[in-house]
Amino acid sequence: MAYEIPQQLEYKEKIIFGLTFRQLAYLFLFAPLTALVFFKSGMNIYARTFISINLSALAVGFIFLELDHHLKVWTIWLKSRKIVKKEKLEKFVPVKEIKDDLIFTKDNRKIAILKIEPINFSIKPDGAKEAITSSFQKFLNGIDFPIQILMNTESLDLKDYFKEIKKKVKNNKQFKKLFKKYKEHLKEVASQENVLNRNFYLIIPEKNDINIQLQICQKKLDNLGLDNVRVKDDELRKIVCKFFESDNNFIPIR
Hints:
Layout: E1 14-16, E2 19-20, H1 21-40, H2 45-64, H3 67-81, H4 86-92, E3 95-99, E4 102-105, E5 110-116, H5 126-141, E6 148-155, H6 159-169, H7 173-192, E7 196-205, H8 210-223, E8 228-230, H9 233-242, E9 250-253
Antiparallel strand pairs: 1-2, 3-4, 4-5, 5-7, 5-8, 6-7, 6-9
């Protein structure tokens, strides 16, 4: 598989005057063209000066500011915005169907997802941190199939929490009033402070037997003290749809 080298890391050989071959090519293109317009064209001095200045600005952009690269990026971005026909979007999404708590891809692969309950690593003592790190390293080294760790943030949903509290105070008038104020206060704090909830997922693509792979991962996660649960069909659909929402907050961790 070919990988594109980031421009800031790519080696570029200097030819003369500290310029690369690409920069010299643009220099030899724009310099004669600018001179031809300014000295040889039959236009008046104002028109010649205006066109020459613009050509010089373009030359600087292409030679020193990599304007050609930016134009290419902008063109790709503009083209990618124009997904008009339904079949184009379907081709873009590799998911064939979701059933039996699995994602089936168009190339006949199966993918299962485990939702992980995270621990607060930062408050652990140093000895516990070392033990957790070592155990996690053994977990990664102990599997012979690829996995992906996925983290996303979403607005904190307090509906279930409020329902439980409401059940407990429904027979107490004094607590009912307090609950109403408490509920309004929490909602206000959550909205003003933009309180977010982090979810962690373990993505498991099938290599040999997806059920055996799931069992291996769940057992190793249990040994790490990480509570986990298999993601069902409804939540799988939400996870897939999340990638195509405008406020996508998914962060893949390889």
